[in-house]
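> call design_seq(struct)
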């Protein structure tokens, strides 16, 4: 756990350094502070109304609330045959009680993710798609540098070891055999 905290602090430090570099004004901008503004130059008051700002945000979003509801319905239908997520949740609870498996959550998740991906892709132009690909590639490269394969393998090993230790604990054994009430 402390390793994860250290890694997150390192990532936060990188983000803060990058943000500071972008926020800091250039020497030219700092040099212009003492220059007076041009005479008779008028600027319109920007429309900062709540409705205008909300409209601007909605127009820039690649996917809307209705699209997300549709994707959730598609995911529910693929997982359990009903577009209503509550029906699928009820069937999942029944499956757990009866030891059956009539719901396929993996299929539902894949269908929902594919639907969202298609909607976003359909609402983006090629320039936006290219920027997204570049951003995704830079992000992947950053995490490959921050968390090299050896470190990822070590994390997996530690997690497996933790699971084995938990399963070997007396309370876990008793609970698995039904001798200890679950909380």
């Amino acid at each position: 756990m402390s390793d994860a905290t250290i890694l997150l602090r390192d990532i936060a430090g990188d983000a803060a350094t990058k943000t500071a570099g972008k926020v800091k004004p250039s020497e030219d901008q700092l040099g212009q502070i003492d220059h007076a503004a041009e005479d008779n130059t008028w600027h319109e008051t920007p429309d900062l109304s709540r409705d205008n700002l909300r409209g601007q945000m909605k127009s820039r979003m690649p996917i809307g609330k209705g699209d997300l509801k549709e994707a959730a319905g598609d995911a529910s239908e693929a997982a359990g045959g009903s577009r209503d997520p509550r029906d699928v949740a009820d069937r999942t609870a029944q499956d757990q009680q009866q030891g059956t498996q009539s719901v396929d959550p993996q299929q539902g998740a894949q269908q929902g993710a594919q639907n969202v991906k298609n909607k976003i892709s359909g609402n983006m132009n090629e320039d936006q798609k290219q920027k997204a690909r570049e951003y995704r590639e830079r992000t992947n490269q950053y995490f490959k540098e921050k968390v090299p394969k050896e470190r990822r393998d070590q994390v997996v090993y530690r997690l497996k070891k933790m699971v084995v230790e938990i399963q070997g604990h007396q309370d876990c054994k008793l609970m698995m055999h039904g001798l200890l009430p679950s909380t």
